[in-house]
Amino acid sequence: MAAGSRVWLPLLLFTLCCLYRRTVSVDRNNFKTCEQSSFCRRLRHTEPAVSKFVVLPETLQTYKQYILLDLQHSESKHLFVLKLAAVRGGIFHFQIDEKSPLSERYRVLDALAKEPEYVNVKVEGGSSGSTITVTVDGGTSRAVVTLAPFKIDFYNGDKLVVAANSKGMMEYEQLRRKEAKPEAPLEEEGHEGQENEVQEVKEDPGTWEENFKGHHDSKPNGPEGLAMDFSFPQAKVLYGIPEHADSFALKHTVGKTDPYRLYNLDVFEYELDNGMALYGAVPVIYGTGPSSTAGVYWQNAAETWVDIFAPEQEKNVMSSIVKLVSGSSDEEPPVANFISESGIVDVFILTGPSPLEAFRQYTELTGTAPLPQMYAIAYHQCRWNYNDEQDVTTVSAKFDEHDIPMDTMWLDIEYTEGKKYFTWDHHKFPHPLEMIRNLTERGRHLTVIIDPHIKRDGSYFFHNDCTDRGYYVKNKDGNIYEGWCWPGAASYADFFNPEVRKYYADQYLLENFKESTAEVGIWNDMNEPSVFNGPEITMLKDNLHHGGWEHRDVHNLYGHMHIMATYDGLIRRSEGALRPFILSRSHFAGSQRYAAVWTGDNMADWGHLQASIKMCLSLSVAGISFCGADVGGFFGNPDGEMFYRWYQIGAFQPFFRSHAHIDTKRREPWLFPEDVKLIIRDAIRKRYRLLPLWYTMFYEHERSGLPIMRPMLAQYPADTKAYAIDSQFLLSDKLLVAPALKAGQTKVDVYFPAKENGEADLWYDVDNHRKYSTVGYETLSVDSYKVPVFQRGGTIVPRKERIRRASTLMKDDPYTLVVAVDKNGAAKGTLYIDDETSFEYRSGKYLYLEFEFKDGVLSSRKIDTTASYPTKSWLERVVLVGLSKAPKSATQHLSSGESSELDVYADEGGAFVVRKPGASMQDSWSIKLKY
């Protein structure tokens, strides 16, 4: 081939790849099935078996906070070591590794928020019995290790909540050297069955090396897969293990489909209702039943498949209901079988017993999302790409012209000079600092994209530095790995090297990225990592990272390490003064500590609109509360109805951003007919009214670890009819959201759940205050504007009714409290207030208030009495919903001793409004109703 051909061929391939991404939906042939993934094929079992592993009781070593035991494979006699410990808060931790491996196996680092707080344990049993029991000192949880065949039963009190290896599916491929195949003897006619014939042991063809679509995986360490099953004896449903575009409740896979796959991949226009791998992998799963919830966090960053055994899905529904009513429990419990390519067995058992307690246990391990700045939870406007400075200025001004609030403009890859990050295209954006400041002066922000692929360009400082300093990921031969992404030829920073992370973080500093400001948000995309010409659109598994680890060992952690570096850079950029805002596509366990997540390259399709709820619910219970989807769909052109319905859903999800592909029609709200624009405007304004609630929920998430957006079973685990519902959701324990999700929909079936005693909560429609007091479905009419949202009786919700162009301008505005009473005529609620931008709240500069309505008196008090913040906000209105009789007036009492008479009037829908109490939100006060 001529030299010229060698130059243009890669460019042609790259161009074709980009065109492919822009014009064709997902091609399933580009991604492996379990049968095409050698370790999954080898280790997947569809039937329970007698475990081949046994415990050697004479090897028991007892320590203050853990025990050690040897396990032995009954056939190979290979030895493994079990370490079992207890963590404070109802958590067990066990690890299994080879006792004398040929080389060290990878153990996940950087996913946990901190070193677990281990507690003392008591040990009973040993060589004289068939079990060894490990009990938490001073607690009720215990783990019972059965010696032969090996399994571990985990109890919360008297309830068996998780059983590890109870189905005998544990596998653990020992590291070994490839043996030369013996020469087979020549076959002689008539002697095929002779006893002295040498029998060759046949191994799976992908055991020692593997090919997929022209890509070769050399597997220098050979087979190193592992698997273990987990039963949930108290559970009726399993859920978790995001990210998949599937139902919230996990489906039965055995004998039907591939297992759910956890392998971070760039899958655009992804299909719905299947377990294909997507952009993130969070290996935590939960099982919930009427009396108990438990979870399993499988801490492994390699490619992982999870088979689901859901016996109830395979049985007659009526039979299951009869058994549930009669109390029969002879049915098989659901089981999850985790299968990973490499690493070790490293498992945390979350014993619950409630769904919220299990979620809290998980975030106690992996951390919570830090409280974002207020602007980050408001509305974001994005597309690939806003063309230039004038385009950004015009779009921002148009939001003002049409009286639609908006907080953040976004720029995709075209703002850079030739796809080189930390640079600007000065033809399109000649004055970036001026553009940023113009937004800031109007109370708005800018977010720009910075991806992990680095353009291979000799004039690019970042590439030259990474090349000279050895900062790139290497191929199996130790040379710099080269792939293809948006810039064309690209290499990838090795974020597993602390020195590389610091160098990358340094680039965000304002002395380096001079045409930026401390207020600019960052969007980390394509960080699975995406490699257009790689196997499954990602990096080769035998590439090498810092420490000599293969990419196969750490793949699902790559994006996590990327955003960890970004977070460090943004913290140091503002010298710790501002809370960073980062959006990431790739994620792993613990990624919530650094970034928000969105559901990736979805489509302008009603199914994808529905999937946004299911996917964010799964992410929320896996610790990632700051979740949203591209409103309107990234690919395609939504019609007006789909567009406004998507806005109505997005307005009630934690991350709220409209985003679109470069080839779609422009879709700013005012480009649609006036009636559509007004509905979108109304949806966005609903978001801004509830920003005080959203801000409080985010603070309470950081404080408690509980999800913001919750499935119905989170609050109502006794109601089994609510388990599979993923068309509606809860916000904290205060609001129930049941949006319209289909074209032409004029009615919505809303399910009101049952409490443990079988009774219903009271629910009030937030628009007309209509009360719902029975368990079950209610069919409600909806028009174009209607979003069915209900406030739970017994709660108090803070709002702000003065909508401005951006949330930053609402900071000192007054509050409205909506008091919705329960059956006893009482209610409670909280409100969090601070400066909305800095970390000073961690030094006590905040207000965390509790409001209580009881016996006709509404009062305010500080929850944290030592904290304070000099807010200028005051109480403008109190709306009382569900009162049994009408108040005539009210008296307000302030902490200073002053009192005043207040007017009360009846509002539409039977609510009563206390007009302008005027009390400062930083003071204690009470309002007593007079009848």
What is the topological layout?
Blueprint: H1 3-23, H2 38-43, E1 53-62, E2 66-73, E3 79-87, E4 91-98, E5 118-119, E6 121-125, E7 131-136, E8 141-146, E9 151-156, E10 159-164, E11 171-172, E12 210-212, E13 215-217, E14 226-231, E15 237-240, E16 260-262, E17 284-288, E18 293-298, E19 304-309, H3 311-314, H4 317-326, E20 335-340, E21 345-350, H5 355-366, E22 379-381, H6 389-401, E23 408-411, H7 432-441, E24 445-449, E25 453-455, H8 461-469, E26 483-485, E27 488-492, H9 498-506, E28 521-524, H10 551-554, H11 558-573, E29 582-584, E30 596-598, H12 606-621, E31 627-628, E32 630-631, H13 640-650, E33 656-658, H14 674-689, H15 691-704, E34 709-710, H16 712-715, E35 729-731, E36 735-737, E37 747-752, E38 763-765, E39 771-772, E40 776-781, E41 789-792, E42 795-799, E43 815-820, E44 827-833, E45 847-854, E46 857-862, E47 875-881, E48 889-894, E49 899-906, E50 912-915, E51 925-930
Parallel strand pairs: 22-23, 22-33, 23-24, 24-28, 28-29, 29-30, 30-31, 32-33, 43-47
Antiparallel strand pairs: 1-2, 2-3, 3-4, 3-5, 4-21, 6-7, 7-8, 8-9, 9-10, 10-14, 11-14, 12-13, 14-20, 15-17, 16-19, 17-18, 18-21, 19-20, 25-27, 26-27, 34-35, 35-36, 36-41, 37-40, 38-39, 38-41, 42-43, 44-45, 45-46, 46-51, 47-50, 48-49, 48-51, 49-50
Helix pairs in contact: 6-7, 9-11, 13-14
